[in-house]
Specification:
The chain is an alpha+beta fold. It contains twelve helices and ten strands.
Length: 293
């Protein structure tokens, strides 16, 4: 799913929040993923009632694109964030984890796939990871990124991007573990062993004529129990999920491949292009040919 959404690292690296002024961040597209490498500061997100204190080792995801502020004291004056002004440079004392203020590492990810809401709709405005398990899981990526910033080598920017991407995926995994029993959506459904198998079946062979009965039998469940559990965990029925997944695949293949419409249509389980076209329009809001153009 992450690959289909075309996650692209827009910016990765680090910056410092000092004790004299706070930063304002404007509305943005995509996801921001930050981890505190030293110190602490307050995070205040628009439309979220309580500010969050983020400390050394904490990681936060900001997936909704809402304006936010970072400051060691929210009563301090704020200026609009400019990466050039705050960026960490080789030799800065912040890289040695000394000095005052707060040092932050991370990245900004654009979701260039059209249906980014598939991922974002199930995430809260702030995902705050702070347990010792979380810190241990993220520590390696943080240490590597800090090393790249401190002593740049050929390929440094590419490595920093990949490390930021790893931080994001690790953060999503950890959030899934923490909220597995409470969240609704495909991401949280993956924490359920039975529903994960059903989703894997549809993802691995989207062109198969799956039925509710066949999926239930794969899991040794009754049709009724499976249908109720799938909708409760995913937020839609399996027979709603399957065509949506097929159309997300179709949209991606129409953009990046030279396959004919009939080839894509038949590979995803549709015998008639007219039925495929109707299903495609329901998800994408246009015809397959218009989408490809």
């Amino acid at each position: 799913m992450l690959s289909l959404l075309k996650l692209k690292s827009y910016l990765s690296g680090g910056f410092r929040v000092d004790d004299e002024v706070g930063f304002e961040f404007q509305r943005y597209q995509g996801i921001k993923c930050y981890s505190v490498s030293s110190g602490s500061c307050w995070l205040s997100v628009e439309d979220v009632s309580d500010a969050v204190l983020i400390k050394e080792g904490d990681c936060v995801l900001l997936p909704r694109g809402l304006p936010f502020r970072l400051a060691t004291d929210l009563s301090l004056p704020h200026v609009r964030f400019a990466y050039e002004r705050a960026a960490l440079k080789p030799g800065d004392e912040v890289l040695s984890e000394s000095g005052r203020g707060c040092s932050i590492l991370g990245g900004h990810f654009l979701l260039t796939g059209r249906h980014s809401d598939v991922l974002l709709e199930s995430l809260p405005s702030i995902v705050h990871l702070r347990s010792e398990l979380d810190r241990e899981t993220l520590r390696w990526s943080l240490d590597r990124m800090r090393r790249e910033l401190r002593d740049p080598q050929p390929g440094e920017s590419l490595i920093a991007q990949q490390l930021a991407y790893m931080m994001l995926v690790q953060a999503l995994r950890l959030h899934l573990q923490e909220e597995a029993g409470r969240g609704v959506g495909w991401l949280f459904a993956l924490a359920d062993p039975q529903i994960r198998v059903a989703i894997k079946c549809m993802h691995d062979d989207p062109g198969h004529p799956w039925t509710l009965q066949e999926l239930a039998e794969r899991l040794c469940m009754s049709r009724t129990v499976f249908a109720q559990k799938f909708k409760r965990r995913v937020g839609m029925t399996s027979m709603e999920y399957l065509p949506r997944w097929r159309m997300l695949l179709a949209g991606d293949r129409l953009k990046r491949s030279d396959e004919s419409l009939s080839e894509i249509c038949s590979s995803l389980g549709y015998e008639a292009e007219s039925a495929f076209g109707r299903a495609f329009r329901r998800v994408w809001g246009c015809s397959p040919r218009e989408h490809r153009r």
